[in-house]
Design goal:
single chain; 473 residues; alpha+beta; Glutamine Phosphoribosylpyrophosphate, subunit 1, domain 1; Rossmann fold; six-stranded antiparallel beta sheet; 27 strands
């Protein structure tokens, strides 16, 4: 649950990194950081808070250089500590190294113990430092970043998209299953990689393609070169990116997220139609679903909840108490649109259920006669170990309840979750190429105490596949 970006551009990168991180703010609200390299020195600044709060014009003007990386964080591994704010920065053999990571490793404890027994000292509690230690150790032995990334992929179990800045050279790589999104763009005077295409759009850059699962991308002043490090028998793209986490206007692995959500909305009506006066959304993440439902049902789409645009995403707030307090500040019911009305209320997901219950109570207090909840994801029944903050079954309202019990708990007039089959059809991938662990309890990687169907990964003796001028989008 983080956003990363890396840029090499002859015109300078600090302002571009700032706007790219701004576009990725939905992926993490806790902290933000930028590192840049000016040819001889690494410049860095990071802090707790939103991108606009962390970086001021004077700070950005001091971040000099034509290569840099940035990060917005919401923690899934590692506490809310200043030392965990990324990018993490190191000096090694007179080289400046900066690293940032989106994803979550499931073998962090084992790897940390291995390196501590070998005498390594850790200064953070985040799994990103594990990745850095593996890379630096491998570079010191082989001297090759490409070989180091291959060693890293052999050791890491989990989800990861990573950006590394080594002096003025930018490297980015994606895990062999492609769990977390990652893409390549062309800026005015260079190239970039980022978690989502919306960061490319924010810079008026050209979206080229997604980074392939298991691929390493190298960007410097000469252009882009790519190497396939590992090839898996299948992918395991995170299904929750399409349900909630990615921005609706993002293109992930060739699929526009907005179109997926609108299609899901139509399928929600087809699976469980209901008569109502209007269709409304829990903004903003439920809007595309609600528009699809309205199109399918011919029931008018009417906003019944108005969002405070200065509020962030309550789902990724660190504590349950903060999430609950934020609901009434974030959403205000429009009484004239609710009084004596039967409303279909569409949302992306129900995780803990407390937010849904509060929203329905607010709508009833505003005069709604009926509130029919329609949910754009199947019931979330299991924790995510690969980068979304749903850590325990006890937190998940649907973990050991049937749909009718959930309906009573949130006090909805009726409730329907999209079926897994309809969801997968809307996304357009084969089921075996999606990670559905949070919906099914079956994971694409071995996880202690959980059922898994791991995929075989082959490592290749790769050579650079493309150079600037012959780069294939």
């Amino acid at each position: 649950m983080c956003g990363i970006v890396g840029i090499v551009d002859a015109g300078g990168v600090s302002i571009q990194l700032y706007y790219a991180l701004y576009a990725l703010q939905h992926r993490g609200q806790e902290s933000a950081g930028i590192s840049t390299f000016d040819g001889s020195n690494l410049h860095k600044f990071k802090g707790n808070g939103l991108v606009a709060d962390v970086f001021s014009p004077p700070v950005l003007s001091d971040l000099k250089g034509t290569a840099g990386i940035g990060h917005v964080r919401y923690p899934t591994t590692g506490a809310n500590l200043p030392e965990n704010i990324q990018p993490l920065n190191f000096q090694f053999q007179e080289r400046f190294i900066s690293i940032a990571h989106n994803g979550n490793l499931v073998n962090t404890g084992e790897l940390r113990a291995e390196y501590e027994q070998a005498g390594q000292i850790f200064t953070t509690t985040t799994d990103t430092e594990i990745i850095a230690k593996i890379l630096i150790d491998a570079i010191s032995n082989s001297g090759s970043v490409e070989d180091a990334v291959s060693i890293c992929m052999h050791k890491l179990v989990g989800s990861y998209s990573v950006v590394i800045l080594i002096d003025g050279v930018l490297y980015g790589f994606r895990d062999p299953l492609g769990i977390k999104p990652f893409c390549i763009g062309k800026t005015e005077h260079g190239y970039m990689v980022a978690s989502e295409s919306v960061a490319v759009d924010a810079l008026s850059a050209k979206f080229l393609r997604d980074v392939k699962p298991g691929e390493l991308v190298r960007i410097d002043s000469e252009g882009v070169r790519c190497m396939q490090i590992a090839v898996a028998g299948k992918c395991a793209h995170c299904i929750f990116e399409y349900i909630y986490f990615a921005r609706a206007d993002a293109v992930i692995d060739g699929v526009l997220v907005y179109d997926v959500r609108r299609q899901i909305g139509k399928k929600l009506f087809e699976e469980d139609p209901v008569k109502a006066d209007s269709v409304g959304a829990v903004p903003d993440s439920g809007t595309a679903y609600a528009i699809g439902y309205a199109e399918g049902s011919k029931i008018p789409f009417v906003e019944s909840l108005m969002k405070n645009r200065y509020m962030g995403r309550t789902f990724i707030m660190p504590t349950q108490k903060e999430r609950e307090r934020a609901v009434r500040i974030k959403l205000n019911p429009i009484k004239a649109h609710l009084k004596d009305k039967s409303v279909v209320l569409v949302d992306d997901s129900i995780v803990r259920g407390t937010t849904s219950k509060r929203i329905i109570e607010m709508m009833r207090d505003a005069g709604a006669r009926e509130v029919h909840m329609r949910i754009g994801s199947p019931a979330i029944k299991a924790p995510c170990y690969l980068g979304v903050d749903m850590p325990t079954r006890e937190e998940l309202i649907a973990s050991n309840r049937v749909e009718e019990e959930v309906r009573r708990s949130i006090t909805a007039t009726s409730l329907h979750h999209i079926s897994i089959e309809a969801l997968i059809e809307a996304i357009g991938f084969d089921r075996e190429n999606l990670c559905t662990g949070c919906l099914t309890g079956c994971y694409p990687l071995p996880i202690d105490g959980e059922h898994a169907k791991p995929c075989h990964v082959d490592f290749v003796d790769g050579t650079y596949q493309a150079k600037l001028g012959s780069f294939e989008a």
